[in-house]
TrEMBL record:
The active site is at H24. PROSITE patterns: PEPT_TRNA_HYDROL_1, PEPT_TRNA_HYDROL_2. It is found in: Cytoplasm. CDD domains: PTH. This is Peptidyl-tRNA hydrolase. HAMAP family: Pept_tRNA_hydro_bact (MF_00083). One of its GO terms (molecular function) is hydrolase activity. It holds the Pfam family Pept_tRNA_hydro. Belongs to the PTH family. It catalyses: an N-acyl-L-alpha-aminoacyl-tRNA + H2O = an N-acyl-L-amino acid + a tRNA + H(+). It is an enzyme of class 3 (hydrolase). The record marks D103 as: Stabilizes the basic form of H active site to accept a proton. Hydrolyzes ribosome-free peptidyl-tRNAs (with 1 or more amino acids incorporated), which drop off the ribosome during protein synthesis, or as a result of ribosome stalling.
Amino acid sequence: MSDSGPWLVVGLGNPGPTYAGNRHNVGAMVIDELARRTSSSLRTHKARAVAAQVRLGTGPGGVPGPSAVIAVPNCFMNESGGPVSALVRFFSVIPERVVVVHDELDLDEGTIRLKRGGGEGGHNGLRSISNSLGTKDYHRVRVGIGRPPGRMDAADYVLRDFAPTQRKELPFLLDEAADAVESLVTLGLLDAQQKVHAPR
């Protein structure tokens, strides 16, 4: 891939310990995994976020991957756009190099999909980001959490913690989602899609 400046990888969630284990916060959990992999600490940034500058993944020949900013907004999900657009301006990131990691009701639990652009599927965090950036043409790493059981409201479902059986599988899901982010920034979207979307 040609180098067009840094990537910005944002994981969505709600702030504070009350929400930390919620399904809606799986994007923020993926950023924590990327921080762990890169031995970096997320520090408070004036853009109403915690962020770290890192190199993600490994390029050809084992060289460190591209430079990136990993971040989690310090605000509620439906206000995510303000911090994201502030980070884009601060670090001079082009929209095509913005990656948003988020929970996805329309994918089976444990499924990960990559795409660029498209609708928000009722996701308030994505809607806020699209409005603030003035474009939908950014990358998404969609982490499947499945549909709510029975007649449970979707809003209640995403704001509940993962079930005990799901929590056992959660480290594997976060690991795969972090791999997907690294593949996206090192290989580009099409090659990363072939790798991540391949049947297992």
